[in-house]
Design a protein that fits this description.
Shape: globular
Oligomer: single chain
CATH topology: Maltoporin, Chain A
CATH superfamily: TonB-dependent receptor, beta-barrel domain
Number of helices: 5
Structural class: mainly beta
Radius of gyration: 27 Å
């Protein structure tokens, strides 16, 4: 069940819609759901902030859906009608979803009935069940960089009952140092049909550990494409979700459907970094020693203490490193209920939808910092003291010594322990009215209420405590007009809102920045983001049954203005940042797609252009940008491009059955350049664009045994998928390097090849 229901034909939806079927998913043989969307949906591209192929972002028309806390989220994502944006930061972990269990994925823009975070659109994932899939399939695969994986799926129907189960496990050493991934996923469904009713109980479980080596200095990548800077970096995720959904045909015209769920999510993150602490001599009173000094952003220097309240002392000449640890434990539950009535209105076909939803999440978050030393391989070796919450204020002398003044202060890298509660309420309606046989009118809206509570569990930072409530009503109106069979016009206007999440509200003070997903501090209140979207376009298609030919196509224009957009702003403290409202931002452009089937041939092509820009003058902190002023500031002007958004994206692919048993195909994904994060003023050369080609082939040895091969990035294109800046001076001083270029990027995977065997019954 989606908030729109399954009854509205795509041809009557007055906005951009792209659907990917299970057969198209099987064609790519992708093991990551986001990659499937990137292959087929015009406005989608994947980016990689963490440096691991199982933790990438979905970027749709310049709006992000990411597994990384700290990335402003702009898409609402549903699995079988359950909103799966995690409670703490609205993040989405696509690695929890095994692609073989997906029946279809639909990307839709401009409809507020999908609730909070749908400012850029929504992604609805419909999973398989035993009514939709019957049979057994086992698949095993081996290939580059130690890849070993296996999967099974099985679906059966017994009269009115049906069962389905899918599971997979993946081990990949990765092409980058410290890039090992271990993925285990399970999805199961039990369904029953009655007279006019259908119910499903399903379970999703996942357990993964991935190496996330993040961005590397470009000069280091020149020495080796897989080299990384400052490790260890890893993320361990666990998730269990149980949901119950169903629908009942209450009358000839009224259908009632609903869903309820419980979800548990646990994440442990380890991140090795260069520390902002520096060695300094401790002057009397007290014995002479070398301590660890930290310059807080309030201008005061402090001598760090450990968790026992004793001053931290250092020995040796190695650079000071820091291992930051975070823990997130979240429990979420909720549900939705809606009714769809298809009674005629004024003797015309009409569909009226009315529904409501509630989503509640409770999160425990903690973080800590442990000092260590930086090894020659950029490995941060722990074993040093854990930094305590309070440091001793001192006066820093010209000779590098620090004289204690007798006072104390909270450390900018102190441990944090908070609890958060978020409750989201929604009430929505949508009416689809056939004014004529050609003209369909749509009107509706959704009223959202979001309450976010934050409580400091340490008792040392009461300014973290807050209780914020956001309200907004989002209307939608549109129309489709069927010019003739195979050609329709559409146009619409919609609003949507995004309330700041707990991870943003607790990190909105530039004087107390956070090392997300590590540290949270006090918060000036953030405004909610409200988007205004206009769309217009054409869509159509044709089918020739006799010649076995089919074609679908669409072309559209979109214009989305965000007010009070939330962005992540860098701090002068290495790796730290804060959130701020950044005025208006605009994302507008065109997209087009075409799909063609003819006997043994399948071909597709699509194109997206998005002009993503700031609309206000802004002064932002970007201390490591080469063009920043003496205070580390850059100056943004209306028309400057948003970071990380390629203006042009083109995809194309073809599949052909050379014989009844042998198929061969290929795909092209290309994107133009993008602005570095931290270069919102657009003064540096952008991160270059790219084009990569993938090939796949399969051969059916028998009706039940298939062998296949995959080659990704067949021409070994070297390109970056994310770029930002780092502190060259501190890196050289702490790690003994001689870097001169502050650019740092996440490299894309080089050529990889896999071979597999699939057995079906």
């Amino acid at each position: 069940m989606s908030p729109l229901g399954d009854e509205i034909p795509i041809g009557k939806v007055p906005s951009g819609v792209s659907t990917v079927s299970s057969s198209e998913i099987a064609r790519t043989r992708s093991d990551y759901a986001a990659d499937v969307l990137a292959a087929y949906v015009p406005g989608v591209i994947v980016s990689d902030y963490q440096g691991n192929g199982f933790q990438t972002n979905v970027d749709y028309r310049g709006f992000n859906s990411s597994p990384v806390d700290g990335v402003p989220q702009g898409l609402a994502v549903y699995q079988n009608g359950v909103r799966i944006n995690e409670a703490f930061g609205d993040t989405v972990n696509y690695d929890f979803i095994t692609p073989i269990a997906i029946n279809s994925m639909t990307v839709m823009s401009g409809n507020p009935v999908f609730g909070l975070n749908a400012i850029g659109g929504s992604i609805s994932i419909d999973m398989k069940d035993g009514f939709k899939y019957q049979g057994f399939e086992a698949d095993t695969r081996f290939g580059s960089y130690g890849r070993v994986q296996g999967s099974i799926q099985d679906g059966m129907q017994f009269g009115n009952w049906a069962t389905y189960i899918a599971m997979d496990a993946i081990r990949d050493e990765g092409f980058r140092q410290q890039g090992t991934s271990d993925i285990r996923r399970l999805y199961a469904d039990l369904g029953v049909k009655g007279d006019g009713s259908e119910f499903h109980l399903n379970f999703t479980g996942a357990d993964s550990t991935v190496g996330v080596a993040a961005a590397s200095p470009v000069e280091l990548l020149d020495e080796g494409w897989g080299k990384v800077f400052t490790t260890p970096q890893s993320t361990t995720n666990e998730m269990e979700m149980v949901s119950l959904n169903g629908n009942v045909q209450a009358t000839d015209t009224l259908q009632i459907s609903g869903v309820s769920y419980y979800r548990h999510f646990n994440q442990q993150h380890i991140d090795g970094n260069i520390s902002n602490a520096t060695p300094c001599a401790i002057n009397p009173p007290g014995p002479s020693a070398t301590g660890a000094c930290l310059d807080n952003l309030d201008g005061r220097s402090i001598l760090l203490q450990n968790t026992a309240g004793n001053l931290i002392t250092l020995s040796g000449d190695a650079g000071i490193g820091e291992i930051d640890r975070t823990s997130v434990d979240a429990n979420s539950f909720g549900g939705s209920l809606q009714g769809v009535d298809k009674s005629t209105l004024f003797d015309h076909r009409n569909q009226f939808l009315l529904g409501g939803s509630i989503d509640h999440g409770e999160v425990s978050f903690s973080s800590s910092a442990q000092l260590g030393v930086i090894q020659p391989s950029f490995l941060v070796q722990g074993g040093g003291p854990f930094v305590g919450p309070i440091g001793e204020i001192c006066t820093l002398q010209d000779d590098g010594s620090c004289t204690p003044t007798g006072g104390t202060d909270l450390s900018d890298i102190r441990p944090v322990s908070i609890s958060t509660r978020n409750t989201y309420y929604g009430l929505y309606f949508l009416d689809t009215f056939d004014a004529t046989d050609q003209l369909t009118l749509t009107a509706g809206g959704r009223f959202n209420v979001a309450n976010i509570q934050i409580h400091d569990e340490t008792g040392l930072a009461p300014n973290l405590n807050s209780d914020n409530t956001y309200y907004h009503f989002n209307p939608v109106a549109g129309a489709t007009y069927k010019v003739f069979d195979g050609l329709s016009l559409y146009g619409s206007f919609s609003e949507a809102n995004r309330a700041p999440v707990a991870a943003e509200l607790a990190c909105a003070d530039p004087d107390n920045p956070c090392l997300l997903p590590s540290f949270l501090t006090s918060d000036p209140p953030l405004k909610q983001v409200v988007s205004y979207t206009w769309e217009a376009g054409l869509k159509g298609g044709s089918t020739d049954v006799l010649s076995h030919q089919k074609m679908t196509w669409s072309v559209g224009f979109f214009h989305t203005l965000n007010t009070d957009d939330i962005i992540n702003v860098a701090s002068s403290i290495i790796g730290r940042s804060s959130f701020a409202n950044a005025g208006d931002t605009l994302r507008q452009g065109v997209e087009a797609q075409i799909n063609y089937w003819s006997g043994p041939l399948f071909a597709y092509a699509n194109y997206n252009f998005v002009d993503a820009t700031f609309r206000n003058n802004l002064t932002l902190s970007s201390p490591f940008n080469p063009f920043a002023d003496a205070e580390g500031k850059i100056f943004v002007h209306p028309g400057d491009r948003l970071p990380g958004v390629p203006a042009h994206k083109f995809k194309a692919g073809v599949d052909y059955a050379l014989t009844p048993r042998w198929r061969l195909g290929g795909d092209l994904i290309a994107a133009s350049d993008q602005i570095f994060f931290g270069d919102e003023s657009n003064q540096n050369a952008p991160l270059g664009g790219y084009a990569k080609v993938n090939f796949h082939t399969s051969y059916n040895v028998t009706d039940h045994i298939q062998i296949y091969g995959l080659v990704d990035n067949a021409f070994n294109a070297h390109y970056g998928v994310f770029g930002t800046f780092f502190d060259v001076g501190d890196a050289n001083e702490s790690a003994g390097t001689s870097f001169t270029d502050p650019r740092t990027i996440v490299p894309a995977a080089p050529i990889t090849a896999y071979g597999g065997l699939k057995v079906t019954f």
